[in-house]
Specification:
Structural class: alpha/beta
Largest sheet: 6 strands, mixed
Shape: globular
Oligomer: single chain
Strand order of the largest sheet: 1-2-3-4-5-6
Radius of gyration: 19 Å
Length: about 210
């Protein structure tokens, strides 16, 4: 349903959503993803306010829940959207890809929730944990091994960052382990990768280098 067909009883609420959301740094790919999921119209160009006004009520409501109210959903999709937007803010003018399949040196194809490309080359990958217990040592090692495998593969030559996001925190052993693994690579400039942890607390992501 396009904005032009929006019922008058919802116009006030919609206007409030638009006036609030236009102040947020919403990446275009997030608008496109939510518009697709909600079968909403979305004008391709224009000011953020104009793009928001072209979206249907369901899409606007989800955007408001995700970025204004910072709500959670059972599937962790809202948390992922916030993580994706944060990663996007770290890499201006780069290509952002969601659910990207990247082959590693082992021959395994890794499904990466978010990947960043610059000049056609992968430069960063990231994953986010939205529910359950804090990220464990085992999960930290598994993430490290995935990034390492991609780095050693044919598409990993320019890969320089691995970002592990969490809405449920990290246990101390996980942080220490990832820091040790990260530091062990710095002796070899060709093989260097910056591993970072990003915790969602107090409605924002804070990133700490390992």
């Amino acid at each position: 349903m396009s904005r032009g067909n929006f019922p008058t009883f919802g116009a006030s609420k919609t206007g409030t959503f638009v006036s609030t959301l236009k102040n947020y740094n919403l990446p275009p790919f997030i608008l496109e993803k939510i518009a697709t999921d909600c079968k909403s119209d979305l004008v391709k160009k224009g000011r953020i306010e104009e793009r928001l006004q072209s979206m249907n009520d369901e899409a606007l409501e989800i955007l408001h829940k995700v970025f204004v109210n910072c709500e959670e959903d059972s599937n962790g999709v809202y948390a992922d959207y916030r993580f994706f937007a944060y990663i996007s803010s770290m890499f201006h003018k780069c290509e952002i890809l969601l659910n990207e399949k990247i082959p590693g040196a082992s021959g395994k194809s890794h499904k990466v929730p978010i990947a960043v490309k610059n000049n056609g080359m992968y430069i960063a990958v990231g994953i986010n944990k939205s529910s359950g217990g804090p990220i464990s040592k085992r999960e930290a090692v598994k993430f490290y091994e995935m990034v390492d495998d991609i780095k050693k593969g044919e598409h990993g030559n320019q890969l320089a960052e691995g970002i592990f996001g969490s809405s449920v925190g990290f246990d101390g052993e996980a942080l220490v382990t990832l820091e040790k693994l990260s530091k062990s690579r710095k002796k070899d400039p060709q093989n260097k990768i910056e591993f970072k942890t990003a915790s969602f607390e107090n409605r924002i992501y804070s990133v700490t280098k390992c």
